[in-house]
Structures are given as C-alpha cells and as structure tokens.
Design goal:
It is globular and about 45 Å long. It is mostly helical and about 170 residues long. It has 9 helices and no strands. The protein is about 60% helix and about 0% strand.
Length: about 170
C-alpha cells in the first residue's frame, strides 16, 4: 500500500513533470569516490530510450526525464538514435526530438521539416519551434512576425508555456 503522501501527490496535476519523475523513479546511488556519470547510459536498448536520454527538451511538457539543453546535445550520439526512433515510431514526440538534434547540428532546413511534421500531429513543443523559426528565420525562412504569432498562438492554445511567453513578448 502506498503512503498517503504518494497518493495525494499523484492526485495533483500541477506538479512539474521533472519533480514527479524524481519522486517516482529510483535513482542509482553514488558515493564520494565514484564520479557522477556524464554520458547517457550504455544499457539503454531501444532507439527511443537513447533518444529520450540524449535529446529531450527541458521545456517540453511531455518529456521523459529532466531533458537536455540544446547546447548539451551530443549530436554524434543522439542523431542516429533519434532518427531511428522517429522512423520506427512516427510519433510526434520522436519526430520533434529528431528535429531538435538536427537543429543542434545546425541543419536548420531539415530541422524545420521535422518540427512541421510533429506540429501537423498536434505536438505543442514542435508548434512552438515552428513559430520560433518564423520569428528568427535561421536562414531558412524570412522572419515574419505575424506568421510567428500564429504558430505561437496555436502552441499556447495547446498548453505550451514557452509559446505563451513568446506570444506575450509580441504584445
């Protein structure tokens, strides 16, 4: 039987995903003489697990785990895993992560294609990044504030907090 604390915690829907993840998973213990691991676990078997570990966005509300900032994505490891995961599953989550890795690689044209694919399936984080492309251009599209606002609004309506913030900057 679960303690009351855990039952009550599971009933709350406003708790950030990262906090819930930390409470509900068992983490390995490390002693002072063991260095903390800096690489993704080698034991992760599936492309989906490797892609999640290597490329999840810390701002994606549907992420698994804590996420990795764009600058810290190890493209050489993440690219094959996320490409395979996106091709195998065709789920918007992995299409989005594949786009993030392509963006980290500075392959902006292909990244935008992947974000639009995930956005067409309703993935809010991808919709927000399509808006970012229209806001910034990244050498792929001409910056267009009204087009960016349209994408940010759509992502905000889907619950993406980053898009809400970006949309607020326009006003």
């Amino acid at each position: 039987m679960q303690p009351i604390f855990l039952r009550k915690l599971q009933q709350l829907t406003a708790i950030p995903t990262a906090f819930c993840f930390l409470l509900t998973t068992s983490a390995p213990s490390y002693s002072a003489d063991q260095p903390f691991p800096t690489e993704a676990p080698k034991a992760l078997g599936s492309a989906q697990e490797r892609c999640d570990a290597l490329a999840n966005s810390p701002t994606d509300q549907l992420r698994v785990g804590l996420g990795v900032t764009l600058e810290k994505i190890r493209v050489d490891e993440a690219l094959p895993a996320c490409k395979e995961a996106a091709q195998r599953t065709s789920t918007p989550h992995f299409i989005f992560l594949y786009g993030r890795v392509l963006f980290a690689e500075k392959n902006y044209g292909e990244a935008l294609k992947q974000f639009k694919r995930a956005a067409s399936k309703g993935y809010a984080a991808a919709i927000e990044l399509v808006g970012a492309f229209y806001d910034q251009g990244y050498g792929v599209v001409a910056p267009n504030v009204s087009e960016a606002a349209k994408w940010f609004r759509q992502a905000a309506e889907a619950g993406d907090s980053s898009a809400m913030n970006s949309l607020g900057v326009f006003y």
